[in-house]
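Lab notebook, bench 4. Still working through the backlog of constructs that have no structural model yet. Next entry is a single chain of 215 residues. Request: give me the structure tokens for it.
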Amino acid sequence: MAQMQTITEFALTGAERGVFTRDQAALWAGNRGARLDALLKRAVANHEVWRVHRGLYCLSERYTHGRVNPLELAQRVHGPSYISLESALSHHGWMPEAVHAITSVALGRSRTFDTPVGLFSFTRVPQHRFLAGVRRVSEEGGDAFFLATPLKALADHVYAQRSDWHSVVPVVESLRVDHDLLAELTGERFDEVMSAYKPGRVSRFLAGLRKDLAL
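Model written out:
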């Protein structure tokens, strides 16, 4: 019991924003073998630690009180990736509905992870320039993650849903995006995002949307 508490105490003081890896726990425990696995398994069973993904852990809610940022955690669960689709649109205030999963775009294959922190969904979107139209966001408390701009999130949505959209109409009617928000888009943003995708459904959507917005 004492050894398990020592792991937890180390995590409380040494885990950055409550998140840590198996390698970090090994340094704290001074062991990388079966003894370490037993300590981690015991901590998880006692609800002191959550196993988020293979080799990735975080202190449970009783210690973090919601301070673990799932947007930052997503890029540690599966990457390279960036927050996009519904989560990005919601973060920017472009989608009025609540989003129940953390949605990301990844370079690798599409995957979903159901974890104690939340549901993480990763969609593969082939691109020429993976981070075109993506920004690194730093929030209060030191949280940092890669986030798609609204236009990039819309483009990814069209690819993910295989939507044959060619104008502003479905963006407003299906996603309920406000016209005033679309009016904030610029030709430079279109140039950047359009450079990311191969010719096809997404490029046709972006060209049609740009034409409707007279950009």
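Notes after review: Residues 2-14 form the longest helix (13 residues). The mean pLDDT is 92. Flag for follow-up if needed.
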